[in-house]
Every structure is written in C-alpha cells, then in structure tokens.
Write a structure and sequence with these properties.
heterodimer; A: alpha+beta; 5-stranded mixed β-sheet; 29% helix; 31% strand; elongated; B: alpha+beta; Tetrahydropterin Synthase, Chain A
Chain lengths: 138, 140
C-alpha cells in the first residue's frame, strides 16, 4: 500500500519575545537583540500539520481534512490566536518562547488527539515569510 | 513633460499591538474589538508597500531613487516600528488606536514631508495576508 502525506495549513497571530529570565537585560539584548524588546512584538504565524498514512478504502483519504482542521483549531489555534505566547499560554510557561520550543509543545498538544490510524508526521511553523522551523517528533 | 509612472517599494516589520478605546468600558472594548482587545497584546508581520507616482526624470530615468526611498522607510518607519509594541513603544499611538487604518495614516504622515511634493504618495499596509488598507484611498 503506498504511503501518502496530507498537510493542513492553519494560521494564528500572536505576540511574544525572546527572553531568558536567568540572564540580565544586557545579556538578553546581546543575544536576542530586538526580539528581546521588553514590550513584545508579534507575528502572523502559519502552521502546516502533515499526517502520514494510507487512504481508507471506504473514503479514499488518510484523514478527513475538515476533522484535522477542527483538531488543530481546538488544541492549538484557539489557544494561541491573538494571545501573548509568553504570558497567556499554559504549555509555554517557564520556557523560552522560540519557535523551536513552541513547535515542540504544539506537537505535544496535537499528537494525542490524532484520529485512530492517523500518524502525525511533521509540523512546520512559519514565523515570517523568511523564517520557519520543522519538527518530525524525533 | 515626462511620462508619469508609479513605483513601489515593499518593506516589512513585525510588531505587537491591541485594539482598545480607553474611553470605553472593558465590556464595550471586548464587544467591539473581540480577541483583538485581549490585554496582553498579539502581533502581526506587517508589510508596507509605498507607492510613489511622478514624472520620470529624463536625466536619471527615475521617478525616485529606490535606494533613497528604501533608506527613508528604514530610518523613519522600520527602525521605529519593527519588533516594537505599537501601543506602548510608538508615541504616535499613545492616544490613537493602532488599527491598520491608523497605522497607514501615521506612516503616510511621517513619509509625506520627506518626499518631493511633486511626487504623489500612497501607503498600502498589510496586517495579515488577508487584511490590508490603503491611504490615501485615491491619489489626488
């Protein structure tokens, strides 16, 4: 049976800053530059969630893309959209708000909610049109 | 008279903001602005497209030197807006809601005196890939 990859794209807008509370302000500024701006900045984030599998013989698809969208919305987009990632998000508390750390936590939010037989393959998180990260669950 | 041509420079900045009317109650702000009113701010990848219209200078072949235009935008807009909180860090929005409309008006107001008065100017601002505004709404 051939394997297919299906990707659902969603988006959310949020504020954040890069800041290590163990460091001085000067050290944060030196390492994170303008991303450490005290009063936050923000992005239009885009999220690409890719699942892997074989099409169900009855439906012809790996997963109902509408259902996948609903899961991403419920556990990720509705939680993050129009929020401050440092202050408002329980699963980012105590963590530096880099996109690497954020994508790792997003994986943790989504993986347990994949429908039966659907394997989460990759998440891509786009912070700007020029910067994105990918995580494969390794 | 040289031919009139429109030239465009695209730039971008990332910023946090929230929509809030200080004269309203918290309930009214929430009702009108919804999640854009959330207290801890959210943010966008803003894209600005600055349009300059004028006659082509026969000596240079330019309407405006794009490097000069780029430097003007970088120095007067990007350096002040990028990786900032528009409500807290940009004085123009101390008492002005940083809606896309008002951001475009403010950017136009900053750039207009810096560009030759014989050239027309228009600012398009994208707040998201799906929401954008233009000011002024038509060239004079």
């Amino acid at each position: 049976m051939p394997t297919f990859y299906l990707t659902r794209r969603e988006h959310f807008n949020a504020a954040h800053k890069l800041y290590n509370p163990q460091w001085t302000t000067e050290q944060n500024d030196a390492v994170f530059g303008k991303c450490a701006n005290e009063n936050w900045h923000g992005h239009n984030f885009e999220l690409f969630v890719t699942v892997k599998g074989a099409p169900d013989p009855d439906t012809g698809f790996i997963v109902d893309a509408k259902l996948l969208s609903k899961i991403i919305k419920e556990f990720v987009v509705d939680v993050l959209d129009h929020r401050n990632l440092n202050l408002d998000i329980p699963f980012m508390q105590g963590k530096i708000c880099s996109i690497e750390n954020l994508i790792f936590e997003i994986w943790g939010q989504l993986a347990p909610h994949m429908p039966k037989g659907v394997q989460l393959h990759c998440i891509k998180l786009v912070e700007t049109p020029r910067i994105f990260v990918e995580y494969f669950g390794d | 008279m040289g031919e009139k041509v429109a030239v465009y420079r695209e730039e971008h900045f990332n910023a946090a903001h929230r929509l809030n009317n200080a004269a309203w109650s918290a309930e009214q702000n929430k009702l009108i602005f919804g999640k854009c009113n959330l207290p801890n701010y959210h943010g966008h990848n803003y894209v600005i497209i600055v349009k300059v219209v004028g006659e082509v200078d026969p000596e240079t072949g330019y309407v405006i030197d794009m490097k000069v235009l780029s430097d003007l935008i970088a120095e007067n807009i990007l350096d002040k807006f990028d990786h900032k909180n528009l409500n807290l860090d940009v004085p123009a929005f101390a008492d002005l809601n940083p809606s896309a409309e008002n951001i475009a008006i403010v950017i136009f107001g900053i750039l207009r005196p810096l560009i030759n008065e014989h050239l027309d100017l228009q600012v398009r601002l994208y707040e998201t890939p799906r929401n954008f505004v233009e000011y002024p709404y038509q060239l004079k």
